[in-house]
Write a structure and sequence with these properties.
transferase; 178 residues; alpha+beta; 5 helices; 16% strand
Length: 178
């Protein structure tokens, strides 16, 4: 079995590093929007616990990137620019895509919902005006918890499941996909 220990193997990230990474990501997004004036796909991972980056998380991010680009190619949506970041705060990828932002959002939500590993991906769409599109404005339900059927944000806020439980579920999903 794969095991959650591989997911927690590595350097723990501090809150300061996470906040710094978020600011840098927002800066890269603003720069890309200014340069390309196209909707952006911004990909991060669902990484509970203090370790956000290691070989396993990097492989999961690479798989997500491949699936997003495959979906774009299937719709004949060109990728005008892309950038990967490999930081202690976790792997990140973003791309400027030649497609209507709303259509792109619908397609990415369906990818997250239908791919066996999609629930482990956090694919955000930012329109060319810099507005992040939400699932709810398209009638999609909130993301589900990894462990139970509740809305993920409710379980996270109430801390209903331990980090170990979440990591075990992530490890199971990765193992099942092999």
């Amino acid at each position: 079995m794969y095991g959650a220990d591989r997911l927690s193997d590595g350097q723990a990230v501090t809150l300061e590093a996470l906040l710094n990474a978020r600011e840098k990501r927002l800066s890269r997004q603003r720069h890309a929007l200014t340069c390309y004036r196209l909707p952006l796909v911004s990909l991060t991972l669902v990484t509970p616990g203090p370790v956000k980056n290691n070989r396993t998380w990097q492989r999961l991010a690479a798989n997500a990137r491949k699936e997003v680009l495959r979906l774009c190619a299937a719709h004949n949506w060109a990728c005008a620019w892309e950038q990967s970041v490999d930081a202690v705060s976790g792997p990140e990828w973003m791309a400027a895509i030649c497609a209507p932002a709303k259509t792109l959002k619908r397609a990415m939500v369906r990818l997250e919902e239908n791919h066996p590993l999609g629930r482990l991906w956090d694919i955000d769409i930012i329109d060319s005006d810099g507005r992040s599109l939400s699932r709810s404005e398209f009638g999609f339900p909130p993301r589900r918890c990894l462990v139970c059927a509740e809305a993920a944000h409710l379980c996270a806020r109430a801390r209903r499941h331990t980090i170990d439980m979440l990591l075990e579920e992530i490890a199971r999903r990765i193992e099942d996909e092999k």
